[in-house]
Amino acid sequence: YVNDAFGTAHRAHASTTVVAKFFSQEKKCFGYLMAKEVENLRKILNNPEKPFTAIIGGAKVSDKIKVLQALLKVADNIIIGGAMAFTFIKAKGGMIGKSLCEHECIDIALNFLEEAEVRNAKEIRNIKIYLPVDAVCAKEFADTSEKNIFDSSAIPEEWMGLDIGPKSITIFRDIIASSKSILWNGPMGVFEFTNFEEGTKQVALIVAETTEKNKAFSVVGGGDSVAAIHKFRLDNQISFISTGGGAMLEFIENGTLPGIEAMEK
Fold it and tell me: Least CB-packed of 64, 106, 135, 247 within 10 Å?
């Protein structure tokens, strides 16, 4: 029995978990792709060279909060971008205009930020959380919409943030450039729109540059992040590109997956 389907390893299906249990240890194994996924994700989560920076973007806090909580235990820096950043900014009292915000997750976001502070105060870990300080905004969700740059916590009511701004790019660039291990999941903005791709593009470029020039170990996963790497033609400058979206996130959360456990027992 050979399992080479990392992208479905987080699902407890008959084909990924039940069947494997009928085979003895010497008669089942990972395929080459699955073995590489497990090896590289364990490397960056269990034994990362420091400093370790995690870049987490995307739209929803609810999709990524468990990942963020898991990263509190291992990362030195956590950069939060994308639309989900506005829920955190709102939780801190910022004015975010019409930007996407999960109001039901505001307390969750605030608790996460407070947990990081508690860890620092108790010297459990020295973890730094970075949110965008400025945003490229538009009045409409369209590539052709007029755009303007505002402080991310002072966005006028009729405007919405669709990308991180130039000040944020500079701050994030410096953090990433000084890292030896980098994990990236989720874009910094609506990179599908040319007017709002710069944040994601610059993060992709600096991850690739740091990997190539500083010999950092980089892992990129998630459909949008991988699409950005392809779009900006940086595939060959990333240490490892994961084929799993949900599987990668769940692996970060739990350190394993049902499909992996079934193979290793």
Answer: 106
Q: Looking at domain 49-243, does it have CATH number 2.40.110.10?
A: no
Q: Where are the beta strands (DSSP E) in the chain?
A: 2-3, 29-30, 52-56, 77-80, 95-96, 128-130, 134-138, 147-151, 154-155, 160-164, 181-185, 217-220, 240-241
Write out the DSSP string of 244-259: -SHHHHHHHHHSS-HH
**CA 34, CA 16: separation in Å to the nearest integer?**
12
Rounded to 5 degrees, φ, ψ at 112 are: -65, -45
DSSP β-bridge partners for residue 56:
80, 185
Per-residue pLDDT of the chain (265 residues; tens, 9 = 90+): 999 999 999 988 899 889 998 999 999 999 999 999 999 999 999 989 999 999 999 999 999 999 999 999 999 999 999 999 999 999 999 999 999 999 999 999 999 999 999 988 887 778 999 999 999 999 999 999 999 999 999 999 999 999 999 999 999 999 999 999 999 999 999 999 999 999 999 999 999 999 999 999 999 999 899 999 999 999 999 999 999 889 999 999 999 999 999 998 8
Instruction: Say if strands 95-96 and 154-155 run parallel, antiparallel, or are unpaired.
Output: parallel
| Cβ-contact 258, 6 below 8 angstroms | no
> What is the distance between the alpha carbons of residues 100 and 145, in angstroms, rounded to a whole number?
17
- Quote the radius of gyration of the chain (alpha carbons, Å): 19
